[in-house]
């Protein structure tokens, strides 16, 4: 599970990600979905709905004592993301002395927000649902966890949000409402067509969920506008109205709508968990509520400065060290292989001094994206070289020359016959040499102590980064890549994955 330090400070998974190996040893149902990576770590395939469901159910049971059931054809929530939202609602309602009461709009089959809020904080929830299957599962999950006194699941008609749900409870003032609205407007958006930036990588996890859970007329933008419309009529029946958004571009039009309607208190935040980003918006008609500050620039800076990293396992590192002449630690063998790979990729690099004597540091300047489809490019180059016409003297060796030049060619033929191998072997050797020239580095390796290489003012470069190779424990080596500057951080991420795969393949062969 890819997590980062930009999660909510109170999120239990922020600095302690789930231990898949431990959970697999304790829960047989989860063990079936855990595999061992090339790096020797326990991993889960987030593209498999069964694996995602097993992880969610296992985390809820292990960390919160909750036992739930979720059908595969309905939305399977991820626990760290839902915890981020719960903790933000805690921030919104901080300082209130009365018991907190909340509404979960579209609670889903898992009923995860009410179950977490009731278990962690003793909150009372009114959980609404329009889907029959989700309603049945949510009711069952509440009952089997013995939380019926705190969570009330109600079935509401289609397109109902807050107004109809509160008809029978006219005297109750709720502290907040939560909502994970349908993100998509149609099937094309749900499949990722025209809804994602073309430069972004594909989603890292599978998209599950029923029609009412993932799609709504007008998508999340129109759905939340309907909540705003209800809030304009209910006003102080709720102290805080909130919703989670899947698209950052939805924030601006929704905040503008709240401004036009004269809503006095508005705030926002972002939820970060690995490659997944969500945004949340909250508003209130109470003048005395404390408004949490949006994410600070310091927090964003911390996120951007976090290096990309991967681990080279103990197996094979010693052999890499033996191959690195003059190596003084396990990191040298890894660094030597990295330098060879970078040279093959024509990525400018040089070793730079490091304050840590056990650490090897390289300064990288990528001028051209040579790591994408590198294998296909090399195959195409080899194919083109093999299709080049043979040299004239090779043809002369197998055919009779014209009479006027017979003596000269015969002499040349005799000279070539003294060399080992025939003309075909020499031609293949020439092709290999040409191939080596094409793969040669763009510049010679700088000497130790020189300034890091940098393009001239007129030279184009993609990005610069600092690569650190350092031992972690025993013979385990960690590789870190720190962003310095450039056009696109995704390019550094791509290079990092290329280097990781190259190292792991080399280690697996040792």
Return the average pLDDT rounded to an integer.
Answer: 77
| Main sheet: strand order | 5-4-3-6-7-9-8
Which class do the helix and strand fractions yield?
alpha/beta
The biggest beta sheet, please?
A: 7 strands, mixed
Features:
18 helices, TATA-Binding Protein, 510 residues, Rossmann fold, elongated, 14 strands
Folded structure, characterized:
The protein has 18 helices and 14 strands. The protein has 510 residues and is α/β, with parallel strands linked by helices. The chain has 2 domains: 285 residues, Vaccinia Virus protein VP39 (Rossmann fold, 3-Layer(aba) Sandwich); 134 residues, Kinase associated domain 1, KA1 (TATA-Binding Protein, 2-Layer Sandwich). The strands form 3 sheets. The protein has a 7-stranded mixed beta sheet with strand order 5-4-3-6-7-9-8, sandwiched between helices. The chain has a 5-stranded antiparallel beta sheet with strand order 10-14-13-12-11, covered by helices on one side. It has a two-stranded antiparallel ribbon with strand order 1-2. The longest helix is centred in the C-terminal third of the chain and has 21 residues.
